[in-house]
Amino acid sequence: MRLYARRTREFTGIRQNPGVLHIVTKVGSLRDAEGGWNPALAPGQLRQAAADNLDNLGLDVLDVVNLRVGGFDSPAPGSIAEPFTVLAQLRQEGLIKHLGLSTVSAEQVAEAQSIAPVVCVQNFYNLAHRVDDDLIDSLAARGIAYVPYFPLGGFSPLQSGELGSVAARLGATRMAIALAWLLQRSPNILLIPGTSSVAHLRDNVSGAALTLSGHDLAELDGIAT
Q1: Are 101 and 126 in contact (CB under 8 A)?
Q2: How high is the pLDDT of residue 17?
Q3: Of 42, 65, 116, 223, which residue is most buried, by most CB within 10 angstroms?
Q4: Domain presence at residue 58
């Protein structure tokens, strides 16, 4: 399975396995006292976030840093030149190897690319939420990875007769089918399915071994329609 590692405060394997684990972290927002996320895109905030990640992960350089721009589930309009330039400067200073974006529009991706190379985009996408179909294809043509967050629906887990029908036919779980669909959707898609149990982890991993037929894919594509 094409996996994508996210930020963690305690990841002891990093020091023991340099070059084996590739950690992707995200900056651009801060959690408030109520648990919400507020924009933190000022230059000083971005530099502090990068420094915090280096310290928390015990690294001298961050593999990939994504700039979070939009809201909870959709991009926010406007230029991202100023905050992305800060990350580009950190890259030039040798503190970040590669840059990515999160919750952005196609126009913002293009603007960022005019400043520095973009290696990945992380947006809200799954087989029921297909707003980024054109963006995924465009990124694939340019060799840029696409990382769908909420690949299983997030706080509203994917539910549909079509999904259940395909799962029953293949003897798999709904989650495994939903992830298999994403993996077959495009070769540039990397997955970050969350899990809180070993059983769910096994279900998630099993999706990588599934091959969906043309009939299966057509049935699942009908969910978004």
Answers
A1: no
A2: 54
A3: 65
A4: yes
Q: Per the domain annotation, does 92 fall within a domain?
A: yes
Separation CA 178–CA 209 (nearest Å): 13
In a domain, 116, yes or no: yes
Whole-prediction pTM: 0.86
How many domains in the chain? 1
The domain containing residue 83 runs over which residues? Answer: 1-124
Tokens found for residue 62: 């961050």
Phi, psi (5° rounding) for residue 39? -55, 140
| Measured distance CA(13)–CA(111) in Å, rounded | 36
Q: How far apart are CA 16 and CA 2, in angstroms?
A: 22
Provide the pLDDT for residue 65: 98
CA 210 → CA 121, 148, 206, distances in Å? 25, 19, 7
- H/E element, 48: helix 43-57
Residue stretches of the chain with pLDDT short of 50: 1, 3-16
Tens of pLDDT, residue by residue over 77-95, are 999 999 999 999 999 999 9
pLDDT at 35: 78
CATH code of the domain covering residue 96:
3.20.20.100
- What is the pLDDT at residue 154? 65
- Rounded Cα distance between 121 and 151, Å, is 14
Half-sphere exposure of 118 (CA within 13 A, CB side): 28
Quick check: 104 and 69 in contact, CB under 8 A?
A: yes
CA end-to-end span of the chain, whole Å?
27
